Amino acid sequence: MAIGSGRELTWIFELLLILVMTTQVRAQPPPGFINIDCGLKNFSAYEDANLKLRYSFDDEFVEGGEKHEVLPEFMASTIDDNQNTLRSFPDGSRNCYTLPATPGKKYLLRAIFTYGNYDRLNKTQDGSLFRFGLYVGVNFWDSVDLSNWRTDDAVWKEVVTVATGSSVSVCLVNFGSGTPFISSLELRPLLDTMYPFVNTSVSVSMFIRLRFGNITEVITRYPTDNYDRFWGSYSVRMGDLYQYPYISLNTSDNLENLPGNGFKVPSAILQNAMSIDANNSSITVSLSSLSNKDALTLKLLPIFHFTELNASNPNRRFNIYSAGEGLFPGFSPSRLKVDSLYQSGLFTQTGDAYFILNKTASSSLPPLINALEVYALVLMKNLTTDSDDVKYMKDVKAQYNLARTSWNGDPCSPIEYSWKGLTCDYSKSNQIPRIITVPPINEP
Ligand SMILES: *[C@@H]1O[C@H](CO)[C@@H](O)[C@H](O)[C@H]1NC(C)=O
Ligand SMILES: *[C@@H]1O[C@H](CO)[C@@H](O)[C@H](O)[C@H]1NC(C)=O
Ligand SMILES: *[C@@H]1O[C@H](CO)[C@@H](O)[C@H](O)[C@H]1NC(C)=O
Ligand SMILES: *[C@@H]1O[C@H](CO)[C@@H](O)[C@H](O)[C@H]1NC(C)=O
Ligand SMILES: *[C@@H]1O[C@H](CO)[C@@H](O)[C@H](O)[C@H]1NC(C)=O
Ligand SMILES: *[C@@H]1O[C@H](CO)[C@@H](O)[C@H](O)[C@H]1NC(C)=O
Ligand SMILES: *[C@@H]1O[C@H](CO)[C@@H](O)[C@H](O)[C@H]1NC(C)=O
Ligand SMILES: *[C@@H]1O[C@H](CO)[C@@H](O)[C@H](O)[C@H]1NC(C)=O
Ligand SMILES: *[C@@H]1O[C@H](CO)[C@@H](O)[C@H](O)[C@H]1NC(C)=O
Ligand SMILES: *[C@@H]1O[C@H](CO)[C@@H](O)[C@H](O)[C@H]1NC(C)=O
């Protein structure tokens, strides 16, 4: 290659400089984040001023539905600008968003719902049941219950799941008690080492994720957490009860994960902890009050994140109980080294999220806790339709420009939401459904 003239080189140098400056000015969001502002009418992506993330409109990810806005009086009080619009689904029993994914990769999916009386029906406050279903692909994930909920308050749901194909989908299912809607949808790629109990047959739905200590921020997320997990504040939750005998510990020292700990909880989250005065021997974390109607049927898996923050590296040792059952006896946190305790694949048989940390007889100090995650089991039992059959139906739909309300999501699975007119073969249990016949299609 010939060496360019001085003028060209200057030009190239200036271009490089601009590129370098742009990358420095705009903090690069981690690769693979997908941020969807559902129901956005403006066909141009925008950067959220607070989150420093680019949100796009949702048209390329979903087929049916209607775009709406929360009422003007609620716009200022929603948690983020992306909550001001939503897409509702008055038609069809199931409507799905499909997001691109890498087969075999682990993802966190988060859906947020802010009603904001968009339809002027006052559905969250009129005393009626307002509840619809949320599926991850063809498997039930959680229900969204907005009955007696504050009109401008958000409900958020997270699931950690492994993509089995080149897409993941999130479906809203009409339970006959209110029109399903969604305000935003976010996908975050995770590392394989995170949540190692999650695989193609086991997903987990977030029950709660908390950080402890003197934390005034209600939710801590990206950019503090590179994976954009939502960490709630336990002290905010406790309100006036967060006082003596509770003690806050904090450090600005950097923390290190112990070998084998792949959860990647940021130092900034774990640099604060809650303990209790030495006169007391135990800490109780009761999250039972969160229980909704479904809670007692949930199977839960807690993950405790600990590191000793006391500079004198004291003798601190405690037992950990879940709903009265011993989980981890005689645990001692290491100074500035992060331990994440969980029982792999072992879910509690009750949805009672009630934990006691109890000092052992020989310990000189009571327990401490830095962070806690509790997940509910989502069994990925139902399999998606054979991928060649799905591709064939996609082509048929595209070729004939079909917009049938029941033709949304997986063609055969689960059976109660299979596409009208198709015949599917489910005969070999443990095997993926196949399409046997397609109804006659009249060309337009
Ligand atoms: C649409 O977005 C563009 C770019 O962010 C903005 O300049 C424009 O004002 C927006 N239009 C409306 C109607 O909000
Ligand atoms: C919504 O319903 C509640 C309870 O019936 C009522 O107090 C409130 O005024 C209603 N709000 C609107 C905007 O209709
Ligand atoms: C799996 O499919 C069956 C039959 O359609 C359905 O009843 C069940 O709720 C589905 N299971 C999950 C976890 O979604
Ligand atoms: C919590 O932190 C704030 C500063 O962020 C401080 O003013 C307050 O005293 C602390 N409270 C406790 C109980 O440590
Ligand atoms: C951090 O801990 C020190 C005592 O070690 C305390 O004085 C300070 O208030 C704490 N800061 C916060 C934000 O809690
Ligand atoms: C707690 O222990 C201290 C000594 O460490 C003692 O002075 C104090 O009275 C005790 N407080 C209570 C409420 O028992
Ligand atoms: C702490 O210990 C005191 C004295 O034993 C007791 O009265 C109090 O209920 C305990 N507080 C907590 C939060 O455990
Ligand atoms: C730190 O450890 C020392 C030594 O055990 C103890 O005296 C002190 O009370 C501890 N401080 C906190 C905040 O736990
Ligand atoms: C998924 O993990 C569970 C435990 O969490 C295990 O029982 C199951 O065999 C695993 N399935 C696959 C397909 O690896
Ligand atoms: C706490 O530990 C003591 C012994 O160290 C034991 O007697 C007590 O039953 C434990 N409490 C709970 C709630 O587990």
Automatic annotation (TrEMBL):
Keywords annotated in UniProt: Signal
Pfam families: Malectin_like
InterPro entries according to UniProt: Malectin-like_Carb-bd_dom (IPR024788)
Keyword Signal among UniProt keywords: yes
Organism: Triticum turgidum subsp. durum (Durum wheat)
Membrane topology, as annotated: Single-pass membrane protein
PANTHER family: OS07G0107800 PROTEIN-RELATED (PTHR45631), PROTEIN KINASE DOMAIN-CONTAINING PROTEIN (PTHR45631:SF194)
Subcellular location: Membrane
Signal peptide: 1-27
Protein name per UniProt: Malectin-like domain-containing protein
Domain (Malectin-like): residue spans on this chain: 36-376
GO CC terms, sorted: membrane
Keyword Signal found: yes
